[in-house]
Amino acid sequence: MWTSCQSRGEGAKRSEKRDNEIGRMHLVLGQHLITNKRMTDKELPVLTSDLNGNRAVRVLTLNRPRSGNSLAPDLVSALLAALAAAVADPTVRVVVLAARGKYFCSGMRLDPAALAGGGGAVSSSPDTMFAAVRDCPLPTIALLQGPALGGGIGLALSCDLRVATRAAHFAFPEARRGIVPAYISPASVAALGQARALRYMLTGDRVPVDELVACGAVSAVVDSEPELAATADRLAASLVKGAPAALSLIKQLVFTVSRAPHLDPATAAFIKSTFEGMMSSADAVEGISAFAEKRLPSWDPSSSTPLLSASTTTGKAKL
């Protein structure tokens, strides 16, 4: 009896925390809409719509094609707000994440000027965004019409299901920028496996879409963008046949049993310190500056300080 009461108490606390988070994101959404009330659809960072008129399927479309849908602050804020609005709408049963342009998402927006000035190369940690998508109680489907790079991989893998066209691939360009794929490493290693993750993170080479299907990172491949929507429609039709509470609990069950991408505190702390440390390194300044200037980086081995291993910094964390 005590366990049952305790579970209900913990459930109420989680529900209250989620309600507070949704309320905060609604405030952000309201502020975003007020700020952008005169914007056209072409200017909004994230577009919201229903899939083929089906109000049960909410489509969130990344709408910064000129910048490769990079994870700039306004796009991340708009995505979080739109996701919270979908979760709070009782008519929505499935969330689809799509994108306009050549890239699904080209990753975090890197700012060499801010990095050289002592600030971070990115405006904020992407972990909050990944967690919000991953922990969404509704089933989520990512439609990859093009490549996902760096943080874009993290965003795609935060969704429950992924469908891609032949134009899609994954790539980890971080090492070529003098940085490392810290926050996306848990989901990436879980999806690709250790051997593939090492190969592609170290080399920066493309992960072909057929290989993504082979390892289960992508559920299906289609030949065209219209087929993406048709496939999402079929998947959504299957998903809405399940009870909403059961679908949400299944997601929690799978993450709990697999223990990934949820991490123990020591490993999470190591990932955070790795991300922050690399962003203040000389390699990051040179790599990101070279990328922005469209030149090859000139690495200085004497300025590179190897990162401490997780076991050294925490005594128990292992990646």
Question: What profile does the largest beta sheet have?
Answer: 6 strands, mixed
Mean of residue pLDDT values: 79
What low-confidence regions span 5 or more consecutive residues with pLDDT below 50?
1-12, 17-37, 116-123, 307-319
Which range best describes the helical content: under 10%, 10-25%, 25-40%, 40-55%, 55-70% or over 70%? 40-55%
Which structural class do the helices and strands define?
A: alpha/beta
How many β strands by DSSP?
Answer: 9
Q: What is the rounded distance between the termini?
A: 39 Å
Q: List the strand order in the largest sheet.
A: 1-2-3-4-6-9
Overall geometry: globular
**Helix-strand topology string:** HEEHEHHEEHEEHHEHEHHHHH
Q: Specify the number of helices.
A: 13
β content, as a range? 5-15%
Q: What is the radius of gyration computed over CA atoms, rounded to a whole number of angstroms?
A: 20 Å
Oligomer designation: single chain
Would you mind describing this structure in some detail?
- This protein is α/β, with parallel strands linked by helices and 319 residues long.
- Helix content is 49%, strand content 13%.
- The protein is built from 13 helices and 9 strands.
- The protein has helices spanning 2-35, 73-88, 112-116, 127-134, 151-158, 185-192, 194-203, 209-214, 225-239, 244-258, 265-279, 282-292, 310-314, and strands at residues 46-51, 54-62, 94-99, 140-144, 148-149, 161-165, 169-171, 206-208, 220-222.
- It has a 6-stranded mixed beta sheet with strand order 1-2-3-4-6-9. Strands 5-7-8 form a 3-stranded mixed beta sheet.
- Helix 1 (2-35) packs across helix 2 (73-88), helix 4 packs parallel to helix 5 (151-158) and helix 6 packs across helix 7.
- The protein is globular and about 60 Å long.
